[in-house]
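[audit] Reproducing an earlier prediction to check determinism. Same input, same settings, fresh worker. If the tokens differ from the archived copy the diff job will pick it up downstream; this log only records the rerun itself.
[audit] input (440 residues):
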Amino acid sequence: MSSPVERFRELLRIPTVSHVDPGRVDLAAFDAFHDALERLYPRIHAALEREVVSDHALLYRWRGASDADPLVLMAHMDVVPVVAEEWQHPPFAADLTGTGATIHARGAIDDKGALVAIMEAVEALLADGTTPSHDVYLAFGHDEEIGGTGAQAIVDVLHARGVRPALVIDEGGAVVRGAVPGVSAPTAMIGVAERGILSLGLTVPERGGHASTPPAMPATARLARAIDRLRRRPFPRRLAPPVRAMLATAAPHASRSLRPVLRRLDRFGPLLARVLSRLGPELNAIVRTTAVVTELSGSDGQNVLATRARATVDIRLLTGDTVDSAVAHVRRAVADPLVEIDVLRGSDPSAVSPWRGDSWQRIARAVRVSLGDDVVPLPYLQLGASDSRWFTRISDAVYRFAPFTLSADERAALHSHDERIGVDTWLRGIEFYRAVILDR
């Protein structure tokens, strides 16, 4: 029988790639992934109830002694596209390097690492004859990377059945060092909320014509001015409640000089927000709503004036901001009625889950048991979006944490080339999910 690592590698080799264009999605790869799960985890498919939701999302139910207060373990089977020539190892070969110490593959962390670790934990517990004290659901989306319709459909199913989870755990933060300045201990960054998403279109129309006779303010120049004005007028800095919780929880573990500051956020909060905004992109993103232009378009010809110059602005909303308040800020910053501003898509920040109480303590216990007594569980604000945001509709305790110890370089490889995970790191993640299920 194959080992956990070999099963993981087999599933990593299946290119379940999401594309915004549905015509580019290879649905056969998702079917193959389903088939492989069924073959590799026979006990799960014999003992758990399984259903396919929204074509390719998967929902499993492991009946426990009680159907009240169930646990939901989430992950997604889709991965982002690759540029193969940028990789040192083929992205879907799941190569082992360093005498089997590291697995290289798209999805090794985001997010097949969690999905397969969950399956391994449940399969092993079934082999031990375990019956959970409460129902356990496994919810695996198939299109998280392009919006998460599968996860939304799963929530619809659970809501219709009156299922209200006591705890939901999805991908998110990891075990890292240096996430909070002045804290040297390893920290388990457990997302209690995530920022909202807003895409705006900035459009400047004009008559067009030959580029040899441009107007004084062509559409491209007006658009460039609007973009620069937005860059020069960033959203204000502040410490949102999840960030305050992170800093306050970190205070006992901080350096002596920083400890008094973190313990007096009522007094030092504005100063700390200003300092954090200057310490790099990640820390800046936890203290303000961010906005960046990601797409630009103008004329189709080198000597033709654009009839429509257009930019897309990606905005990530800090807890407390809304789609409406962000649009108002952009209008004020651009300050030009000839620049049309349209909402392409938008969702407000998620609700904030508690960083105290039974659900939080259950995760904290699992961290200590599986990842080490020296690891400090910290609440934090997740910067990116995940499928978990849909589950806040049916649960007040939704958390975002992948139980893997990751370096800065490993985190930087997410959605980039050379994604990889250490074998020992991944195996410890299996123990985390086992500990969460058993809650001991």
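[audit] rerun output stored. Observation attached for the diff report: The first strand starts at residue 49 and ends at 53.
[audit] end
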